[in-house]
Amino acid sequence: MAHYPPISRRDYIRTRLTPTGPSDEAECPICHDAWNAELLNNIVATHCAHVFHKACILEWFLKSDLDNNNTCPFCRRHCFVPVLTTFRITEEDTDVEVIAEFFERFQATYGGEMQVDYLREVLGFNVQDAEDKDRFRNLLDYFFNITDVDMVEGSAPECGDVAHNLMRSWIILEVLHCLGWLMEPEVWSSLLRERAAYFKRAEHYLLNVPATRSPDFFDAVVRYQRLPVFEFPVTSWSGTRPVTEVIRSLISVERQVPEVSTLAVRSGQAENNGPCGDVMLSGAFGLLVKLCSRELMCVVELQTGCLHRVIVDNERHTVMVETSRNRILLFTFIFGDIDARG
Fold first, then answer.
1. Which of 17, 258, 292, 321 has the fewest CB atoms found within 10 Å of its own CB?
2. Residues 123 and 22 reside in one and the same domain
3. What is the C-alpha separation between 181 and 177, in angstroms, rounded?
4. 334 and 247: one domain?
5. Which structural domain range is residue 60 located in?
6. What percent of the chain has pLDDT over 70?
7. Is residue 105 domain-shared with residue 76, that is, in the same domain?
8. Distance separating alpha carbons of residues 304 and 340, to the nearest angstrom
9. pLDDT tens digits for range 63-118
């Protein structure tokens, strides 16, 4: 059994590839071109002291068609935990085993790579370039294309379909979770609807096939489904001032006059809501809206597809949550003095 260093691909590239000068060899072992030491950080060494062009070793690590792309190309020493690209489903696997393991391994592989600097410096995606209107679409297509589900004869085709749809749903959710703050509202809403469509394709199979009703697997699916689809740091408005009140307005097509209520927030708890780390702002229309430690507003879909879009107004200190049921929840945050904290 192979033993892998307890480090991810992202962390290995960031911390274990060290800039160096040319080796005693006349050329890079991967591309066989001569060294160009004049370019800053053009040449790097692996943890096993083998030297390559930085672009060459990154291309090697990021290749999806290699079984050994987590090794040093020179000595084949393992550098990081293997990256999941193709998951092979065999006749001996059960539906539950395959989908659960696929999901866990995929999360472990790509969970840490949705960061602005890593995407730009390693993968070549500048998600901060507002002039590139297709940047998030291109990023999703990249992650979609480097992963696959390999079915073999005799295995249940539904299992591969579920893994495929869950995988794409999770990729979109991770992009929204990590990069949503860079998106225009219409882009964010479009990706949210796409994510819901992928999940719903898998949902019927997950909830209705008896083999998938094991408690552990069902709990894992529920945990995934209820990850925050939107987070906003209200401290970006207030600095060190604490939230003291949240005005909650419910607006619907049927009602011209909105329903308005106010939550007083004191010492990490909501008035009449008991002590809690999170303040419940709303639990209606298939959505859970929370204020975590008076610092982070979180929106969770209790039913996938219930959230249509979220719009943040920095001038008015409001967050508008629009549901797919033609309801609008408007939250206005009121901040107190610094000494009101606690």
1. 258
2. no
3. 8
4. yes
5. 1-82
6. 68
7. no
8. 38
9. 755 667 788 999 988 888 776 555 555 555 555 566 666 666 666 666 667 778 77
268 vs 98, higher pLDDT: 98
Q: What is the mean pLDDT of residues 184-213?
A: 74
Could you give the 3-state DSSP secondary structure of residue 293? coil
User: The tokens of 6 are what?
Assistant: 């307890």
64, 71 in Cβ contact below 8 A? no
- Pairwise CA distance, residues 109 & 10, whole Å: 9
**Inter-residue contact 294 to 265 (CB < 8 Å):** yes
Give the helix/strand (H/E) hosting 15.
helix 9-15
Query: Could you tell me the pTM of the whole model?
Result: 0.61
Number of domains present in the structure of the chain: 3
Buried b (16+ CB within 10 A) or exposed e, 178-214: bbbeebeeebbbebbebbbebbebbbebbeeeeebee
Q: Assess whether 118 and 238 both reside in one domain.
A: no
Q: What is the pLDDT of residue 271?
A: 43
